[in-house]
Amino acid sequence: MNEQTPPSWVTSYVDACNRHDSQAVVDMMSEDIQVVDTAFGGLFEGREAVKALIDGMDTNLSSDYVFTLGKVVESGDSYSFEWVLSGTHDRSNSDLGIPATGKKFECPGVTIGVRTNGLITENRDYWNLAGFLMQTGLMPSLG
Predict the structure, then answer these.
(1) Are 54 and 41 in contact (CB under 8 A)?
(2) Cβ atoms 81, 71 nearer than 8 A
(3) pTM for this predicted structure
(4) What is the Cα–Cα distance from 90 to 79, expressed in whole angstroms?
(5) Beta 29-37 vs 119-127: how paired, if at all?
(6) DSSP 138
(7) What is residue 23's predicted lDDT score, i.e. its pLDDT?
């Protein structure tokens, strides 16, 4: 595997995320996409479930979130890329009982997945939930 300049599809994917354009994001995915959010332990199967997850970021997390792309590695159908999610925690999530705090956050993460015939078929996101909760004041800082 070689670290490389991001392939155009990765740049397009991150750009769609940053526009909060859930439809453009799921258009890059297979109908039977499986997305795992490891921090919350959620499995989202199919485009509609993934679209709802992405739309939920805007309504339940932050109105101004953005992803900053880091290193990208691609080998055959497999890929991974680092990112930092940042924004203002100005949205509450009533399903999880998380109130909006209005505080800024920056959370590093990594996405690992598989892309087949030009479409994402598997996607796993690993990110620091404890760091997010500490930055937003929802969990006391350690130390």
Answers:
(1) no
(2) yes
(3) 0.92
(4) 32
(5) parallel
(6) S
(7) 98
